[in-house]
Design brief:
Two copies of one chain form a homodimer. With 339 residues, chain A is α+β, with helices and mostly antiparallel strands. The first copy, chain A, has ten helices and eleven strands. In chain A, a hairpin with a 2-residue loop joins strand 9 and strand 10. The longest helix of chain A has 28 residues.
Chain lengths: 339, 339
């Protein structure tokens, strides 16, 4: 039944910048039919593996009832956390945020099984992601993130951010040698960063559901306007301004490594159209963005070391985030922003 | 702009049985917009890399005007042959055969350039391919192939089959060592096959445009009925019954390696609903199918040897076709079929 995309799995979760790799798995027509028999969506008309999402296999499915994305969850997503993610998506859609909505089966369940793996059917979300967002799209993306934060308010599901600041020291411990192998002398620098981040990490900021992987590939636009977000599989309870920090790193660095403060300003002003950032949040942004750079550096470093030579998975370069981290360390990015 | 699937390139061209691999390349939004500006299709609404086709990158593109497949041709397709393929698709669609139709740009050209590569926009063809076709679908697929052969009649384009029988000896010459490495003693067996195929290869059979890669992944069904064919990038002028031989190998072997004569009978009876096979064609089928097995064995063997260790491309197993070839060599497949 065609081949289906299983994107290269990387613990970091951010989708592809530059060349990426996918491993294909097949879904037999009988298995698809059995799965769909549980839903009230009619017969399939189109079924194609698509290159979207990094933690799972995604298929574009058109049936007599409309268009959907069928997601088959791969090993990186913990099965017991799936209800949180699916409930969050249902909540967001019910509260007006443009995200894919899980389709319940005839028994009201949004989580099913396909090929012995957890699987879910969600609505198709139109829109296009942008590889190199311009300033206008950074503004739109910022507003979209605030919208997401607002729409998630009241959602009762909870998931701790297992890739948040308290975890970084533990994550780095087995990676010190890999850091030095990547760049001689890097391990003590990272250790000092971790100590400093631990010491100055802001507490008491407004918390809520953070997307935690709000990269350009996970945001859709239509005619230059924000049209929705996808790939919520890192969503967790955290400081909302930390989510802004993750996004500033993902949206506002230029390919040459420089931080584009105009785009950052646009992102923040877009965000503040929907949700105000208080003084403590604005003051915390430099350290939050530095921490966010640490988080993606660490997961990329872990993937780098864990990928055997000759593997079919090509890990993302940890040095990209090492450079972002260095810029934040020097205080060369978020200076006087939004104050 | 999202990531886009470039399927693993393999000279054989047949799409994935079993796990497959794709390499992703990106298309920047500006590049897509420049490309689309040449067409009268409105603005993009959805753009997703899809896992379809092995010789090129395919994207599902929805615009204000409808749904399309955008194909970016990769290195394996010769640029000077693209007009033949696109003209063939236009001809087939104009003559009622369900295939993707190239969309001309404002200047009437169907072949454009995107990311410095040849690219074309074609209509979206609904339908689902089937990984393990049942007997009923083999019948439908057979009828579809005859339909294709009939619809192509009168098309004036010509392309010699550079992977046809006259080429096999030349293709094998540099691969003899690889054959012996794959299976000790195989090279002399293949050489004897090639001599025998050369000696008994049927001449004077009805010729026309052959798809030449009519595998289940390239055929769509809707509600169990034939709904169209894709991936014409091996199409060439050849004996039409040779195309049937390729298809019998692709559709009628079971996963355990056995040839399912019931499915073969169904394929042929479906074919003959649309186009009669004359006595000479029926008599030639065993040797044509044997030759077709040789053709896919040879291209798989070439890919096997050409793939460096640790490559991101996982070549298909040449032994699958070596086994099919052995079954044809022993005359254990097409016995008294359709006679």
């Amino acid at each position: 039944m065609g081949a289906a995309a299983t994107r290269a799995l990387d613990a970091g979760g951010e989708p592809g910048d530059g060349a990426d790799v996918a491993v294909y798995t097949d879904i037999a027509e009988q298995d698809l039919e059995s799965f769909l028999a549980g839903f009230d969506v009619g017969r399939p008309i189109t079924f194609k593996g698509i290159a979207e999402g990094v933690e799972n296999s995604n298929f574009l499915l058109e049936t007599e009832a409309g268009r959907f994305i069928l997601t088959v969850y791969e090993r990186r997503v913990r099965r017991d956390e799936l209800p949180f993610f699916l409930d969050l998506l249902s909540w967001l859609a019910a509260h007006g945020f443009p995200s894919a909505t899980p389709i319940p089966d005839r028994q009201g369940r949004t989580l099913g099984v396909l090929n012995d793996k957890p699987a879910a059917l969600v609505t198709f979300l139109p829109g296009l992601s942008v590889r190199r967002p311009d300033t206008a799209r950074c503004r739109e993306a910022g507003e979209g993130l605030a919208w997401l934060h607002q729409a998630a308010q009241g959602f009762s599901g909870r998931r701790a951010n297992d890739l948040g600041q308290p975890a970084w020291g533990r994550m780095f411990a087995p990676l010190a040698r890999a850091a030095d192998a990547l760049k001689p002398g890097l391990a003590p620098v990272i250790r000092a960063d971790l100590d400093e981040l631990e010491a100055v990490w802001p507490r008491g900021l407004p918390e809520g559901i953070a997307h935690a992987d709000y990269f350009p590939d996970n945001v859709f636009f239509l005619g230059g306007k924000f049209a929705g977000a996808i790939d919520f599989y890192f969503a967790a309870w955290d400081a909302l301004a930390y989510d802004v920090g993750v996004a500033l790193n993902a949206w506002c660095f230029e390919p040459d490594g420089g931080f584009n403060v105009t785009k950052a300003g646009a992102f923040l002003s877009g965000y503040r159209r929907r949700r105000e950032l208080d003084e403590a949040e604005l003051a915390a942004l430099p350290v939050l963005a530095r921490g966010a750079a640490m988080r993606f550096f660490l997961t990329r470093l872990a993937d780098w070391g864990a990928t055997p030579p000759g593997s079919l998975v090509r890990p993302k370069d940890p040095l990209e985030y090492e450079r972002k981290l260095a810029i934040h360390r020097e205080g060369l990015a978020l200076i006087g922003l939004g104050a």
